[in-house]
Amino acid sequence: MATSKPKKKTIRTIPQERARMLVQASTQRVENFEEVALGFELDDALNESERCLLCPDPACVAGCPVAIDIVGFIENITLGNYRRSYDILTDANLLPAICGRVCPQEDQCEGVCPVGQTLEPVAIGRLERWVGDLALAKGWSNEPYIEPNGFKVGIVGSGPAGIACAADMAKTGCDVTVFEALHAPGGVLRYGIPEFRLPNRVVDAEMQNLTRLGVKFECNTLVGRLFTVEQMLSDLGFHTVFIGSGAGSPKFMDIPGESLHGVLSANELLTRCNLMGAGDFPRHDTPLDLGDRIAVIGSGNTAMDAMRVALRLGAEKVCCVYRRTRDESPAREEEISHAEEEGIEFHWLTAPVEILGNENGNVRAMRCVRMELGEPDESGRRRPVEIEGSEYEFEADTVVYAIGTNANPVLGQTSKLKLNQWGYLEVDENLATSMAGVYAGGDIVTGAATVILAMGLGRQAADSMKSYLGIRDTENVYRPQQRGCEGKLFGIDLEEKNFTRLRLA
Ligand code: FAD
Ligand code: SF4
Q1: Spacing, Cα 36 to ligand 2 middle (Å)
Q2: CATH number of the domain at 257-405, out of 3.50.50.60, 3.40.309.10, 1.10.10.10, 3.30.559.10?
Q3: From ligand 1's centre to the CA of 335, what distance in Å?
Q4: Where are the domains of the chain?
Q5: In this predicted structure, what is the pLDDT of residue 485?
Q6: C-alpha pair distances (Å), 390 with each of 354, 367, 395, 483
Q7: What is the 413 CA–ligand 2 centroid distance (Å)?
């Protein structure tokens, strides 16, 4: 019997509307820390997967920093092969439920989806989240048989960069230990991004994939103070080290009043709430007394998170103070509109000039000036210019800084690693630092970026570390023809001795 070939999909034949995702109502969600975006149901996922044109040369894959086979995973949703879909995702990305939630997809995979030229692009991130959540619900995991190869790998920092590198090294058979300064692993995924955007149960569950690969975590371990990077290579016997220590050191503006009680960084606010349970005080022993009126300076994702956390902690009024307009705001559109719906007050074109205190040294108000946009600056954005005589004050009990971060300085201070002029680790095109055997990636190299970019660099560094150790893998083989030595190097058969440490002088 002749079987009919499936018809080729076109922009006209696919579902025209993007499947909608349920969200908690804004009036309800400001009262709790539960997740705001509730994810797809099965029907939504099936419907949305039908919108993928299954392009033979998919632009979205190039748009994803870890090059997930996006067409493959979406097609398998349509076919009902959900487990296969999960396997495809985790070939490239161990954390689909996390990335599906927090990746800025509009600038990455979805930003280049051809459907987006006519309709709304395929909701790749939401589909990825759906598969990731299904895997967590079903308890799926990928646990390959791994042959130990005798190499010890040390990773500094358990954020996305560190764990992506750790996973790749563990898969090749290395004995991998991740050192983390805080008391729980995950980096910004744990201490920065709040529960209502990325629940800790999702972080916990996906981090377990690392443990299944044999990765060990040593928390409460500040590398540089307990031992140095040099000592990791000498005394502790690591054959190679990856540094993914992030950019968690907050910036301030150096205006009068910053030492008043009630001035803090967004990182401190978020860490106290997300990692130390301040939202659950006194059940958790971390108080966070913000008062009623909170002013947050900055308008990136971190600022949005800090403001929405403050609201949920019971603040009466939360304002965003930003010197440019909404159009120039670096936060994701979805985060700004969620913040607006929740009642955050936005003071666009406003810059603080002084924080004012009361007789007890507590913050009582902020003095600001109004701005207007002038000529474009070196970043191409129009420069904010102060409007003369526009100074005004508004009352605030707490002022939170969310104007960016710098590199974590400890490793630079305690090792001979070379830094660039901004204090980030200097690396070459293979992500090798100035110290032999030590590689780096993520925010400590690029400055504050995104989860998936950090993961991409963690994986790229892992490739270089494998080459450094002489570990053969399918993408990184020491091929005899490349070296003109007919299958043998120092008498060792290159195809067979996969885990022999061989490097040419
Ligand atoms: P990090 O995640 O910062 O992890 C570094 C880890 O190293 C930390 O756990 C730190 O404690 C540890 N460490 C540092 N020094 C040492 C040491 N000496 N010894 C041992 N451990 C050490 N990106 C997105 O894509 N989407 C988002 O929605 C998003 N929201 C964000 C919200 C907030 C509040 C913040 C702060 C960032 C957000 N980002 C987002 C950015 C993203 O989280 C980061 O780019 C990413 O986490 C960087 O990963 P990393 O592994 O380089 O560093
Ligand atoms: Fe898109 Fe991020 Fe998923 Fe890559 S990891 S496909 S960029 S959502």
Answers
A1: 20
A2: 3.50.50.60
A3: 18
A4: 26-138, 152-248+407-469, 257-405
A5: 46
A6: 14, 10, 17, 70
A7: 35
Burial of 310 (0-12, 13-18, 19+ CB in 10 A): buried
- The reported pTM is 0.89
Question: What is the 235 CA–ligand 2 centroid distance (Å)?
Answer: 39
The CATH code of the domain at 152-248+407-469 is 3.50.50.60
Query: Does 178 contact ligand 1 (Cβ within 6 A)?
Result: no
Q: Using CB atoms within 10 Å of the CB of residue 504, give its burial: 0 to 12 exposed, 13 to 18 middle, 19+ buried.
A: exposed
Residue nearest ligand 2's atom 2 by CA: 103
Atom 4 in ligand 2: which residue has the minimum CA distance? 64
Residue identified by tokens 């048989």 is: 145
Residue 477 near residue 489, CB atoms below 8 Å: no
pLDDT tens digits, one per residue of 78-126: 999 999 999 999 888 889 999 999 999 999 999 999 999 999 999 999 9
What pLDDT, in 10s, does the model give residues 5-47?
567 889 989 999 999 999 999 999 999 999 999 999 999 999 9
Mean pLDDT in residue range 362-376: 94
CATH code of the region 26-138: 1.10.1060.10
